[in-house]
């Protein structure tokens, strides 16, 4: 049960961070530009969608480039 709750809390925190970044992006003010780790972004997105995908028997096979090549 503790493991399940820890997973829920981690997913909630990730979702909150994504929403905060989207809100900052959509605000009409100067944005801070920074490098974006696409591997991390893709991984976070898949993590957030895993529950919905599993319910529909959808699996994802992911092959990302090492960050040293990006």
Helix count from the secondary structure assignment = 2
- Note the beta-strand portion: under 5%
Mean pLDDT: 80
State the distance separating the first and last CA atoms. 39 Å
Q: Structural class, judged by helices and strands?
A: mainly alpha
- Using only C-alpha atoms, the radius of gyration works out to 15 Å
Can you put this structure into words, describing what you see?
The radius of gyration is 15 Å and the shape is extended. It starts with a helix and ends in a 15-residue tail after the last helix. The model has no long low-confidence stretch (mean pLDDT 80). It is built from two helices and no strands. By secondary structure, it is mainly alpha-helical.
For this entry, give a set of tags.
2 helices, 0% strand, mainly alpha, extended, 70 residues
In short:
With 70 residues, the protein is mainly α. The chain is 61% helix and 0% strand. The longest helix has 25 residues.
How is the topology of this model organized?
Elements: H1 2-26, H2 38-55
């Amino acid at each position: 049960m503790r493991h399940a709750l820890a997973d829920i809390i981690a997913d909630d925190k990730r979702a909150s961070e994504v929403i905060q970044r989207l809100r900052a992006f959509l605000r009409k003010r100067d944005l801070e530009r920074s490098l974006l780790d696409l591997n991390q972004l893709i991984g976070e997105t898949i993590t957030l969608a895993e529950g919905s995908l599993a319910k529909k028997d959808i699996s994802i096979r992911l092959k990302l480039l090492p960050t040293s090549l990006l």
